[in-house]
Queue: 3 jobs
Job 1
Amino acid sequence: MSLGSSDLDPTAYAAGSVKVSAMVASGEIDVMICDLENAAKYLAKYSPVKGIPGALINAQNLGLQGDIAVEQQNYAKAVKFYEQAVKEYEKRLSRCCKLELLELPEQRLGDEPSEAEIRQALKKEAALVEQKLPKGGALIAMCIEGQEISSVALSEKMQQFAARGASQLTFLIGSSFGLDEDLKKKADLRLSMSPMTFPHHLARVMLLEQIYRAYQIEAGTKYHK
């Protein structure tokens, strides 16, 4: 696992009425049990209105404001937890490299943007990114269509970039709709952590951990097993 109990205090919370429990032994083994009966009751509240597939639910009329408020509170707690994890890996990486983490604003779009609106937003975001890209470095874009490689392979790739004379490695995580196509074409490597979808803040933690792990693999420490 990426974060052991020795790294950060574990955080547990319930999403809606879904019972989620975790048993942790020495930070090594997790057994997570989801109560499907409770989950079914929770999801039933969000079933299509009047049997119309895909119908939008009026949260106010269905009395779901409380659930939405709880989800918002859970999200805020999760973000704080992820931010603590980022600080931990920034501290660890300070012993391996000079790390600079830049946060650029994403373009705000409506709930149902058109393809044209998304492309335009990604173009604007790409322009901001390109202003920050260092010269003489290698660009690694995180995108769903990228390669899925092992931690050892990532370590080897990073070593190869350094051997070829790259002065910096820039890892790029896109906004809600990903990265601009032209920007991805400029990448020296496209990587995907998984075909699954993760919150942006969690993806940041996962990537930082993998970068730290890559350096530990190269150094030959016992961190990677």
Note: Residues 110 and 117 are 9 Å apart (CA to CA).
Job 2
Amino acid sequence: MKEKNKNILSFNDSNKEIMPKNIVFFIKINENKCISIFIFRQKKARKNFDYSKRYSNFEKKQNKSMIKHVLIPTDFSANAKNAMIYAIGLAKMMNFELIFLHCTQTLVPTGKKKEAAEEGLNRYKTEIEEKLTAYVTAITDNESFDNSLYRCLVIDADNIVSGINEAVKQHKIDMVIMGTQGASGLKKFLVGSTTANLIERTDVPLLAIPESYVFKTIKKIGYASDLINIDGEIQEAIKIARFFDASIDIFHIYPVYPKVVSIAQTNSDELVAQLQKLYHYPKINFHFVHTSSDNEVKKGVDLYVEAYKPDLLLMFTHKRDFIDKIFDKSQTKEVASSAQVPLLALRYE
């Protein structure tokens, strides 16, 4: 045990017999002798930017079509319908196939009643398929969308997340588009949990569309960066931006604890100049967003959106282990639950 200052004690991974690697404990004792324990996973500091060996691989990736098949889950709600209309608008621009999915959950009894139950379930599935087809046709006709560019799918699954992941695997899905609904308390948990949980449990990009958001072309992308993996993540941001000829706002929210990147030593003008030159993309900007307390990512995103009015938010999710899931909530999930503009969550390993 090592004394950090008068009232804070810290443990680090020099205690290798009992401490997981890269875990840091801080114990704070206030004037009332109450003890608070803070547990953090140390992140690797960002290396100096050296992109000289990256651009050749980036050029090869640019020549590949990013998106061919997009999945849009629907439960026939107004919120899901709004996401469907957004997906149609995007498909008209990007020329990808839409697959509209509805998940059902049925239980088949065993024994003598099994055969009769299966017949009933087959009729029920046929009815749902007809309902989904009629529902989608009405929307696509109203949006003047070519019926050869979409199809409908009904999957029976234990829950909607597993049904979506099954469809992703079976139909080679490149992206999922879902609606979110701004809410709080129990309503937020019940309504927002599907989209937020799917962010962690799917390997394909997920585009979350806020309630009542009206489709418009993407002219500005707000890319939230921790400045640790920016050299890899910016390549994905540029691939998206090039298609729409959109600008990219890299924004970093601070203060962050434990501190990994030094704001004072980060030359944003130099960073932007390097990225613009290397990737031949001049529409890159950089903003620092200051919040009143440490690690207020959601508040920082809200401040950025209010000030700079992006058409799309871009955040990267990272594979989290057991310790992370217990002590470190997913910031992307938190933002997705209440974002005011579409949020694209991409997995970065």
Note: The chain has three domains: 2-41, 69-173, 217-347.
Job 3
Amino acid sequence: MPSTPPPQVLSQSKTASSVSPAALSKAMLEVFSAVRDKFTPNEHPHYEFSARELTEWMSGLQRYSLEGGLTLLQAIAHEGTRVFRDRLVGDHQEDFNRILVGTLSSLLGYKQDVSAGKRVRKALACKLLSIGTAVLPRKWRACSLAGYQVH
């Protein structure tokens, strides 16, 4: 049986080079600055955002595979949401969405795709399953979307 090559991760993908590192850094820093300015510990004590979140955001991108139609910008948006929005409460989550989408749109040409969330989660889940770091629902065991077959 011929072996299939491993899927490309963002750090190895040619598609990832379509966004310049300078533009990516600028967009991420602008989102971070806006989050720190808008959501402060005065409102909620856990709204303490530091450079650690930027590192977590960038490091988290390494977990995504661009197989199955996932784009770099979708992964950046999803990971930013995971790092920042998941800590916010109430209407602040929608405020964050506006900050993230607005910044990524203006600086990187991001166009929000409401159906992308499921594709992003499934691609990430398949990547984590392939390296043995996740236990997921049975329906995701065959991750053909991301090019993985997990048993």
Note: The radius of gyration is 16 Å.
